[in-house]
Amino acid sequence: MKKSSLALMMMGLVASSATQAAEVYNKDGNKLDVYGKVKAMHYISDYDSKDGDQTYVRFGIKGETQINDQLTGYGRWESEFSGNKTESDSTQKTRLAFAGLKLKNYGSFDYGRNLGALYDVEAWTDMFPEFGGDSSAQTDNFMTKRASGLATYRNTDFFGVVDGLDMTLQYQGKNEGREAKKQNGDGFGTSLSYDFGGSDFAISAAYTSSDRTNDQNLLARGVGKKSGSLGDRSEI
After folding, report:
1. Residues 96, 113: contact at Cβ < 8 Å?
2. Same domain, yes or no, for 94 and 120?
3. CA gyration radius for the chain?
4. 159 to 111, 166, 208: CA distances (angstroms)
5. Domain match, 120 and 210 both
6. Ranges of H-type helices in 83-236
7. Nearest to residue 99, comparing CAs of 119, 117, 80, 73?
8. Alpha carbon 67 to chain centroid, angstroms
């Protein structure tokens, strides 16, 4: 059977509950929240890998602790479990896992598996129950969406001086122990956004640049592309 070449040809039947959150603990500057969602979903698609049941459960924990009147520690972990596999299959995946420190008006710094700097722009289109933010934002694709080994500095309201002006600086360490298309070399990214308060209007811009790994360069040559045709870096 001829396969459809356009993702837009895919049809989805989605029944989704909104993400629910609950405060578990909040005392003496220590706070812990849990959240999650269940999505019952079935795809009708020409692609065998997509067609059928796509049900999943998502669960997360967010916490923070007040170290002093200036410094706060925080962390987040989020996981997803597939509902379309047998009990013997390992279907759990970690979506987010990071921890960091926030120094009042000077910003926050964290490290772990987090959202890439480019997602600060892509997030504007990732608001639908399904098929949201699917253009350049792909998981474990440099710093376009969720990725590992991210050191992230974020500053909101620009040191408390300019309301609505937010800045992100990010570094990603090399990740080679996986399939080539999910690998990345060392890279950096940045984003800047400004929210025009009270106008429901904001602008955002982001830039990332990462080294490609040797496996990725070899893979490109293996499909008939000349050495250097893609370059040694990925820039978005």
Report:
1. yes
2. no
3. 20
4. 21, 9, 23
5. yes
6. 119-122, 157-160, 214-222
7. 73
8. 28
222 and 131 belong to one structural domain: yes
How far is it, in rounded angstroms, from Cα 55 to Cα 76? 24
pLDDT in tens, the chain (236 residues): 343 333 333 334 444 556 788 999 999 999 999 999 998 888 888 877 778 888 889 999 999 999 999 999 999 999 999 888 877 776 789 999 999 999 998 999 999 999 999 999 988 887 766 666 566 778 888 899 999 999 999 999 999 999 999 999 999 999 888 888 888 889 999 999 999 987 889 999 999 999 988 888 887 666 544 434 456 777 77
Grouping H, G, I as helix, E, B as strand and the rest as coil, residue 235 is: strand
Pick from 130, 93, 145, 124: nearest CA to 7: 130
Q: Which domain holds residue 86?
A: 1-99
Give CA–CA dist 203/185, Å, rounded: 29
